[in-house]
Specification:
The protein is an all-alpha fold. It has 5 helices and no strands.
């Protein structure tokens, strides 16, 4: 039960942060979802750092990992919103933004995870 509560609290906190980032950064004028993009990259960096800390001499506990990686980062990042936004780009025939958004999100997302792990290993 404690583990479910940790994931719940972390997920709620991450979701609220994602909402605020998207509210202020998603552009209604251009339709480009900068907020979702930032939330996914930031979440990728954070999960790299968190899991890097978890694997480095067990610096954080399994409960911390559930709260922060599974809960907070899971609530912060959002593949379903990313997929929907890409659907909208395709529906509008905006292949350029579809390609740039998809490629950049995947590339920087992977890079951010590796960077987070690297930062922890270097410390």
């Amino acid at each position: 039960m404690k583990q479910l509560l940790l994931v719940f609290i972390g997920g709620g906190s991450g979701s609220v942060l994602r909402f605020l980032i998207s509210k202020y950064l998603n552009s209604p004028n251009t339709g480009i979802p900068y907020g979702t993009f930032l939330a996914n990259i930031l979440g990728s960096l954070l999960i790299g750092i968190i899991l890097g800390l978890a694997s480095k001499n067990h610096f954080i506990t399994q409960n911390h990992t559930l709260l922060l990686a599974t809960g907070f980062c899971g609530g912060l990042t959002t593949f379903s919103t990313f997929a929907y936004e890409n659907h909208m780009f395709l529906k509008m025939g905006d292949f350029l933004n579809f390609t740039m958004y998809t490629f950049t999100t995947f590339t920087l997302g992977f890079f951010a995870v590796f960077l987070g792990v690297y930062i922890i290993k270097a410390i």
